[in-house]
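Why should sequence recovery work at all? Because a backbone constrains its sequence more than one might expect. Tight turns favour small or flexible residues, buried strands favour hydrophobic ones, and helices have their own preferences. The token representation captures these environments compactly. In the example below, the structure is given first.
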């Protein structure tokens, strides 16, 4: 999801009476609506699952409900949230070359962590972790959940372009990294919680030691690399990419 990608974005957003804090307050206000909508959508499936001969664990109901709520929130965030009335040219709406958002973040946003870069990473973290919780077939082979995250992000960017929003290759990269982090977190959680009776139904297939090490390495890289870049960017007088 891309707000704006040029140096005058803050001026335009200010003229429209919008800002990031306003968006955040709006998002918080939407949470009860999304929670109720997810409950209504999951009510019938929950009843059907409850009436099966085999008992359906409560924690799996919780995971299913949270996934539905997350998907509703994702639709709202990517298609309706933080929209402006600013007309965008084709060049501003379609960013096929990766790197523009990263460069903009370092030049104008004060770094990756304070920009929409990490927001887009965080946006898909829950999906990467929830998919194997809900679907047993995704518990073996971390690449399956990551591929779904990539394809879903691709579909979102495709639709955003045709509804007048920004389609950005950097968003696709960041969303996929977020899905990787979420799936790696699931692997670590499976190792830590598989003996806990309440959570056992979510972790029927656990990775081996090498899988745990790889998951921790993925999480560390996704967190530490942007942190290191931000530190170097702040230490240099003109930053890593000076404003021309």
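From this structural description, the recovered sequence reads:
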């Amino acid at each position: 999801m891309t707000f704006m990608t040029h140096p005058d974005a803050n001026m335009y957003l200010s003229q429209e009476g919008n800002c990031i804090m306003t968006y955040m307050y709006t998002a918080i206000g939407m949470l009860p609506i999304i929670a109720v909508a997810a409950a209504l959508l999951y009510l019938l499936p929950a009843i059907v699952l409850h009436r099966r001969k085999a008992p359906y664990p409560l924690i799996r109901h919780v995971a299913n409900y949270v996934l539905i709520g997350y998907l509703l929130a994702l639709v709202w965030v990517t298609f309706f949230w933080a929209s402006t009335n600013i007309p965008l040219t084709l060049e501003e709406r379609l960013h096929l070359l990766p790197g523009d958002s990263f460069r903009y973040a370092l030049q104008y946003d004060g770094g990756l962590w304070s920009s929409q870069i990490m927001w887009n990473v965080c946006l898909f973290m829950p999906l990467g972790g929830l998919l194997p919780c809900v679907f047993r077939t995704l518990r073996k082979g971390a690449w399956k959940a990551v591929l779904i995250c990539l394809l879903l992000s691709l579909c979102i960017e495709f639709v955003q372009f045709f509804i007048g929003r920004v389609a950005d290759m950097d968003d696709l990269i960041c969303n996929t990294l977020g899905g990787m982090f979420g799936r790696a977190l699931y692997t670590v959680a499976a190792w830590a919680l598989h003996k806990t009776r309440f959570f056992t139904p979510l972790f029927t297939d656990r990775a081996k030691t090498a899988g745990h090490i790889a998951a921790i390495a993925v999480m560390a890289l996704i967190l530490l690399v942007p942190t290191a870049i931000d530190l170097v960017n702040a230490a240099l007088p003109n930053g890593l990419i000076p404003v021309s």
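A few observations help interpret the result. Residues 20-50 form the longest helix (31 residues).
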